Amino acid sequence: MASGETTSTAFPSPGEIGHFYDRTGRHLTRFFGGAMHYGYWTGPDDDSSLEEASERFTDLMAEKLGVAGGRILDLGCGTGEPAIRVARTTGAEVIGISVSAEDVRTATARAAAAGLAERVRFEVADAMAPPFPTDSFDAVLALESMGHMPDRARVLAEIARVLRPGGRLAFCEAFRKATLSPEAERAARAVFDAWMGGSPLIPIEDYPPLVRGAGLELDEVVDVSVNIQKTQAHLMERMRAGLDEDPEFPPDLARVMQAQRDVLPFRDEIVAQGGYGGYLVVTAHLPA
Predict the structure, then answer these.
(1) Residue 175 dihedral angles phi and psi, to the nearest 5°
(2) Is 281 part of any domain?
(3) C-alpha distances in angstroms, 55 versus 33, 40, 42, 61, 83?
(4) Which of 55, 81, 144, 158 is catalytic?
């Protein structure tokens, strides 16, 4: 188990995480512009919208999988937009799983509306125990879902189990950068708790042994922190407008915004440390 990894029962259960997204998924899909994950900008002069940057990131992750056709597992599928886009761009069959029943219903309807119900389907399932046979997927994609899971090592072992020999994995998530004062640490951690983070952030150097420990061959770990930085400003602007204008704005997201405000007194310390969290993309494969 990598340093910082834990299975503490203090973390939210899959049911609690599922209910959080049952209540917020519809709103988050709107705020993010379609897919509930970060955008990817090519540089500081890139003035793409959040929607365009998000689609670019989905395409980048699909390229990392390196598959044409075959069968892909989307681990933590949200409301289905990435799975639908990946199916279109790769020609693959995609199965998405989520602990949110409401997200699965929304994703299923979106796949049907896109005319892809025969090739893209979704089901309620826990990534800690995916209900699929051994050697049943050519690739696994996890877009910002790993941080909701209390034991990354177990999830990676399950991914290795369901992958066919030679199958590929691509995932992205936040990693730990700074060592903060106790007060700043609590405030920064509270933001991740408000987003229902299932496990603490770990340093980027912990990922290679973590991946290899699951029996996977590591291909690369890439720090893309600079490329996703604009997401937060876009997202918070839209959420602030939603809070002001939407009488059904979820209390869960109001707590996220409050946690973001509570970090502001520690901004100078966090900036001096280079930021509390970075963002990485990891690719690996199961040896043939």
Answers:
(1) -125, 165
(2) yes
(3) 10, 8, 13, 10, 11
(4) 144
199 contacts 14 by C-beta, under 8 angstroms: no
Q: Supply the pLDDT for residue 9.
A: 45
282 burial via Cβ count (<10 Å: 0-12, 13-18, 19+): buried
For 209-234, how does the pLDDT look when each residue is reduced to its tens digit (9 = 90+)? 999 999 999 999 999 999 999 999 99
d(CA 261, CA 252): 15
Query: What mean pLDDT do residues 193-216 have?
Result: 94
Q: Does residue 9 lie within any of the structural domains?
A: no
Structure confidence at residue 199 (pLDDT): 82
> Does pTM surpass 0.85?
yes
Q: Classify residue 111: in a domain, yes or no.
A: yes
Active site residue 144: yes
Domain count, the chain: 1
Structural domain range at position 53: 14-285
